[in-house]
Every structure is written in C-alpha cells, then in structure tokens.
Amino acid sequence: MKKQWWYVALPVAVAVGATLAASATLAQPVDTARIEAAGQNDWLTYHGSYKSYHYSPLSQINTGNVGNLSVAWIHIPGRSTRGLQSMPLVADGVLYYTGSYSRVFALNGATGEVIWSYFPELDEALIARQTHSPYNRGAALGEGKVFVGTMDGRLFALDMKTGKVMWDTKLIDSQKLTVGFTGAPLYAKGTVIIGAQGGEWPGRGPIFGVDAATGKKKWEFLTVAGTEEAMKTWGGDSWRTGGGGGWMPGTYDSETNTVWWGTANPAPLYDWSGSDYKTQGARPGDNLHTTSVIGLDIDTGKLKFYHQELPHDAWDFDSSVGEFVMLERDGEKLVVHPNKSGYIFVYDRSARVKNVWRITENSNFVKNIDPKTGELIGRRDFTAGKVDEPLCPHISGGVSFNSGSYNPKTGLYYKLGQEWCMTLTVVKTTPVTVPQAQLNLGADFKIAPPPGGEIYGHLDARDPVTGAKKWEVRFPEPPLASVLSTAGNLVFVPDSRGVIHAYDAETGTELWKHNNGTGHQGGIVSYAVGGKQYIAVTAGFGGMASDDYAPTFGGVYKSMPRDDGALIVFSLK
Amino acid sequence: MKLDLDVMTLLPAVLAASLLCGMPASTQPATTAPDNAAFDANQLFATMCGLCHSDGGRAAGKGPQLMDSSRNDDFLRSRIKDGKAGAMPAYGSTFSDAQIDAFITYIRSLKPREG
User: Fold this and answer.
1) Sign of torsion, CA A202 A204 A205 A208?
2) Mean pLDDT throughout A538-551?
3) Chain A partners of B55 at a C-beta cutoff of 8 Å?
4) CA–CA separation, B27 vs B12, rounded Å?
5) Which ipTM value was assigned to this complex?
C-alpha cells in the first residue's frame, strides 16, 4: 500500500487539494441515507445509487458543449489482465476504483493524483487455475470504508482516507470451489452484500451479508436449494452441484428493508433432458433459485420473495446481470431488470411480474415470455446431440453483464442489445468437483451470425415499462460496456473498438466521439469536483465475451491487447 | 456408487477416479474408480474446455483452434499443465500426466463435423 500523506497534511498547498480536503471535512459519511439521496456530485454504488439508474443529474456537460469534451487525466492501474471491467465510485471529490487482481486506487477526482493504493496479496496459484479471472468489477462504499472482493474468496475493507486494511474476511473456500468474487459488493444499513461466481460451476452460489463494521459474516443465502421449497426443485442430488451464484451486485429497497439480487444459471449450462426437464436430465426440476430475481431481508438474509425468470434455465441466460431500475409509473412503484437473454422484466416491489418485453431481434430459446405472467412459451429443451437450428442469442447474451441507464428527465431507458447466435452439440457430462470444482458446460458450441444476417449490437432508447422504442443506434460489433445518461441530455456509450460516443438523449444523434485506443467493457460514471463535471470511463478489453472478438470480427480486435487498461477522465476544455 | 460431499475431502487417493465421478446428478450413473483407460476426454472437453475452445476444439474462439494444431505434444502438454496467465487455466494439479496425454490424443483425433 502506498500513501501520500502530503495530501492530508498540506491541503493548503494545492488549491484543488484544499477544496477536496474542505469538502471531505464537511462531508457527511457515506451511509444508507446518503446513498438513498444520490447527491449529484457523487457516484456511491455500482449502480450509481439504490435507484440503480446509472444516471447523473449533472448538466454542465450538455448537448450544446459536448464537442469541447477532452481528456482531463488518465490513470494506468497496471496488470490489467483481461482488461479493465470495473465501475468507478466517487465520494467528496475522490474517485475509487478497482483493477484486475482486486487492485484498489483512491484518486483525486480533479487531477488523477494517487491518494492511496492497495494491492492485496492473493493466492496466485489458485487464480492461475481459474477461468473467469482475474478481473474485478468494482467496490462499495460505506461507513468510511471501501469494500472489495477477491478471486480467492475474500471480502476486505479499507479505510477510505488512508487505504489501511480495516478487516479481511474469508467467505468461501476457493481452493475447493475454484471460484471467488469478481462482482462489486453493495453496502446498505450496516451490511455489505456480495455474491460468489458460480453459474457454470458445481457449487451452491452463496450470497453473503457481512457486518460492515467488523467484517463478521451475518448471513449466507444459498441460491441453489436454499429453502425447503427450493430443495424440491432439484432431482436427486443435483442440488449439490447446481451452480447459481449472484456474481453481480443488486440493490436495496429501504422502504421494504429488502436486498434485490439476481442469481446465475444452473450447471450444467446445457441440459439434455429434452422436454421432460421436470423429471429427466442432469438437474430435473425448476432448479430454484437459479436464474431468479430474489428479495432478501437485509438483516437476516431470509428470502422474502422471488421470481424465477427462466425456470430450469437450459441456455445460460441468468439473472445476475444488469441493473434494478426503481421507478414509479402511474403511482405504482416498479423495478425494471434485464435478463441475460435480452428479455426485460418489469416487477412490482415484491417481484410480481407487471410486464416483459424483449430488446433483441434474434431470439429463439423460447417463442415468447408471457408479459402478464412471465411464463415461458414454446421453450426449446435439447436432448444430447447436435442441435439443428442455431440457438439465439449466443452464450454471451442478448445483453451483457454491464448496465443500461434510465434517465428520469427523458423517461427513457438506454440499453444495449446484442444480436448473435451459436451452433451447439449437447453432450452429457458429469460434474467434476475434486480436487477443485471445474466448469460444467454440457455442450460444444461456436458463435454464429443470426439467421440471414450479421452479428451486430444496438443502443436502444425505450420506455422502460412498455419497451416502446423511440430510437436506435447500431454498431457493427456489440458494445459490451455500461451506458451513462446525464441531465445534460446526453447518452454515453463506450464501444468495443475503443471509441466512446455521446448521443443526444432525445434523438440518438451522435454529438461527440473519442478514441480511447482499446476496447471498453466496464463502467462509466459522471461526478463533479469543485464545480466542474467529469466523465470517467474504464478502457481495456479481454474476458469471457470479448475474447471471442478477435476470431469473430478480426480487424482492430486482432491486435487489441487483452492485458491492458486505463481509466480515462474527460472534462470540458 | 454415489459420492457425497465428504468424499471430496478423501483425496488425493481417489482423485483420478473422482475426476469422472465427481458429484453425479441423480439421473447420471456414477462411475466407480475409472482408470486412465476409462478417461473420457471427449466428455471432459465438453464439461470444462468448450467455453473457450469452440466446437469441441475444432474452431478458434476465446482460445485457439486445436484441430490440426501445429503445436507439438510437448507444447500442448506444457500449456495444459501450466496454463497461460489470463488466457488458459493451469490443470497440472487437476489431471495426471496420463490424463493430459488423453486430452492430447483427443486433440489429435479432431476432425471437422459431418453435415
């Protein structure tokens, strides 16, 4: 850990430092109420705030001046194996972000100067045996601490001001389960919540609640057969190796004291049950609570409600991805959540389905999902052997793990869709759990274009509740990063080739673009320091979806590094 | 025989056998103590490797195409055992040398799919 004490000791020496120090002195601690309030200068959770909008109310950068946007500063985290995938956080003018291997940085948000950094010592031999590794997707803030998970199964807390380790808690036995934590935690009401990786891994996908003050585990919820009801939905012993996981962060509803979280798919990914999936195949039954949105009591971890978006998911279209947009429509409080398949679910605040709509053009794993009930209609359940018609979307999903953005000013939801498919041959497999758990896929497969067309991606501006589309912008390769919208009537899309675009939020007209030199697949935020607005985006390609780009698209992806990355921050000239 | 979770702690004596048995799902018959001759590299490839090596290793994906690879056996053996940081997991502590050789045999046998 490196510290720069001059910043703390000599704030009067530097004007910006003085401003930051003053704001830090006067600032309220980051707590549940402050996150709930979502102050315009900050970005306090992975999803921005508990509302999960990925929206900034700042408007200094707007449609009239975005052409003057230029690079303010850059930070290189180093050792960006498989790129840079995290979502920066900002509080009181300090930007916190993570890189691969759970490296943590606290930077002066105005200048990029390093205030402190922390590189945890990790079990590198274990990480060398992992597949979905060593990237990290972000941190949480609360009670004066920065919370970060590790690939070797730990959650640690650092002092926000100094980077000093406050506690470091081992939560899962990664030597046995292989997986660890890549997703950002969530802080709320004295508890840090984090979910393990695990969709295609033969475990039980725990989600943990940890005391923010002490690091002591408060509760653990097993996403596979975690209740008596759920146990009945796994034939025989299949629950022991069911997968699950909750590998991306959810959000918190203070009105109901509930943590909303999405869970991963079951293992193996592809089952050979055929249509008799309730009684046949690798994991007979609905496989609760995989591929579900669940509501947990934040104090106890007890399940309060759930909706299984895809019962017996046989396609790896899990529910861990994406945001939980909390909005009101006609007096009703709703939650909008994308499923990896590209279907967008609209719930009430108890996860009762209010509507379902689809963002992708190419989708055939089901014929449809009933918008009134959420029931799958015309599902495709495979038997062992070659599948005749390509499966759409591709395993990388109709949407990526990254987040869309809801702009309360325009009332529009800006979300990226991905149009691609895959050929596959389903193979009966047996889970491997010793000496370490291994992936359990259940198929050989290959990326393929949609029938009669080409692979592409698109940014849609839609009504979040009805799905009605206002405009669309297409990309030759699916963008994989998160989207940001702002009160400046702008939508920012960092694309896979390395170009960040700014669009008019009302029309989709491109107003500005800048080449960051390498592909994007992480977060983007906006914040203000000393009255000046900034846009911060992570660049750096590599990982489970982007590793397919070089062989699939060639071009710039052939030479694009998969072990590099940078945090790039923009402001007006 | 069906294994329960406790079996996972009884290793490494039954390690090679368990690689195939693991934690069987209810409808999958468990295999008792398979020797290396029973090591089904084709099945294991679809279990663990197909996420990166597309179409069973027949096409380039996240990982390289393995069918018709110009790499020699020593290179393949080394790569499977030691991996490559950020690209290929290391399986040297998971599989025996004989089992890794079975994977190489599988790779060398790959042919384009018919039809």
Assistant:
1) negative
2) 95
3) 423, 425, 444-446
4) 26
5) 0.85
